[in-house]
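Sharing a chain and its predicted structure for anyone who wants a worked example. Both blocks are below, sequence first, tokens second.
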Amino acid sequence: MTDNKSTPRSGIVARFASWAFGITFLLAALGLMGKNVVTAFWLLACGLLLLPPSSRQIAKRLNRSIPRWLSITAAVVGCFALIAIAEPSAPQQVQRVTDAVAPVEQPAPPATPVSEEDHLRQIVSDILKGNTNMSKPRLRKVDVVKQAAGGWGVFTEFNGGDNLTANMRKGDIESKMAEVYIALYTSGKDVQTATVAAYFPLVDRYGNESEGVVLKTSLSRAEAGKVNWDADNTMLRSSIIPDVWTTTLVHPEFR
């Protein structure tokens, strides 16, 4: 980038710019080899046109000096090429900065308070979860009713499972009933009365099958208050609770 009409100062600036741009473009071209051949070629061409030693060799081979406008064009094209290869890295830089910022912990939303009724329903649901061995839902219904004198009445219906004999079916039903009473009266809730009814498929004398209540019992707070709830759980389920509850209905097949 020399010009016979330039002042000495402008000549020094032009030579410095030629060296600076030329070296920059050549280094960038070397870095892009094998990655972006087209851009590397343009940077290489611009660098060779601008770098004084290579520029003199080109002029010597062409037997004419390289015009100033061509040098300026090479500098502009090279700069655009550098900008083009630099732009794709900007989003990555932004992403790295974004990743480096620690996420701000949001306060956990306040827990929704659970009502007494829902809590009692959940207690029964946990005992009677799943299906019977006849592929029927164990729990049929649970109602929680506020009592006139205070406290709660819990009324539960569930499906009994099948077994080898009627006595074994009854034993399984009584054990499950006892589990419900144990869970309710050891929950710390103000349960004043509880009733549990067990359903099982029944066949009438005409051969028609329908589900009906085969055993229904109830246990009041007054009776429950006399029970040693710290006794062995097996004893509670098999004998203690069945001895203190009140049987209000029992099907003849389950007597």
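Comments welcome. Residues 179 and 234 are 10 Å apart (CA to CA).
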